[in-house]
Amino acid sequence: MFDILSIDGYDMTQKKSEILQNLRILYSIRNFDYWEKLNVPYVKPYPFVGCVIEGMRKPLHEVLVQRYRKLGKIYGHFEGNRPLLSVADTSLLREIFVKDFHIFPERRSMNTGDKIIAKMMSVVNGEDWKRIRTIVTPTFTTGKIRRMVGIFKECSGTLVENFKTITEKGDPVETKK
Q1: What is the distance between the alpha carbons of residues 166 and 177, in angstroms, rounded to a whole number?
Q2: Dist. CA 159–CA 167, nearest whole Å
Q3: Residues 54, 56, 62, CA angle at the centre, nearest 5°?
Q4: More confident site: 25 or 7
Q5: What is the rounded average pLDDT of the residues 39-46?
Q6: CA distances, 151 to each of 86, 145, 146 (Å)
Q7: What is the pLDDT of residues 105-145, one digit of tens each?
Q8: Whose CA is closest to 85, among 77, 94, 96?
Q9: What Pfam families does the record tag this protein with (predicted)?
Q10: Other CB atoms closer than 10 Å to residue 137's CB: what's the count?
Q11: What is the C-alpha end-to-end distance of the chain, expressed in Å?
């Protein structure tokens, strides 16, 4: 019914496609000056994917250590076009998670498909986070943690010994039993 429109041999459908693609690219990079405006060091992002490419090429912990060494304890990065702030300063993390928790109840969502992980305090948001924090907070007072250090050391020693035994045999380690 409709033929491809052309003016003087130029394909209008192709031109529309090019315009649409350029608009998609512009839309995907619209926030990429976010950290620069705030004068925060940041990882340079790529259109559409942000900074996630590095995490596909190397283990995530290596990527995070490399970024920390290059950019410092506080830096910005992007997940797609969404700006994220990474903080590795323990005193600032204490401020965020303990003293100013009421200001930071929302964290990025992580849909892992695992029911247990979905209920972790570091993953939940809003009212669920506040409820879990209220339950957990009395458990982690300085005095109680000090009394638990011996138990932590004993359990971690047992864990290390178990891993040594398993790896010496060459058996796989089942971590989700």
Answers
A1: 15
A2: 12
A3: 60
A4: 25
A5: 95
A6: 31, 10, 10
A7: 677 676 767 788 788 877 888 888 888 888 888 888 888 88
A8: 77
A9: p450
A10: 11
A11: 62
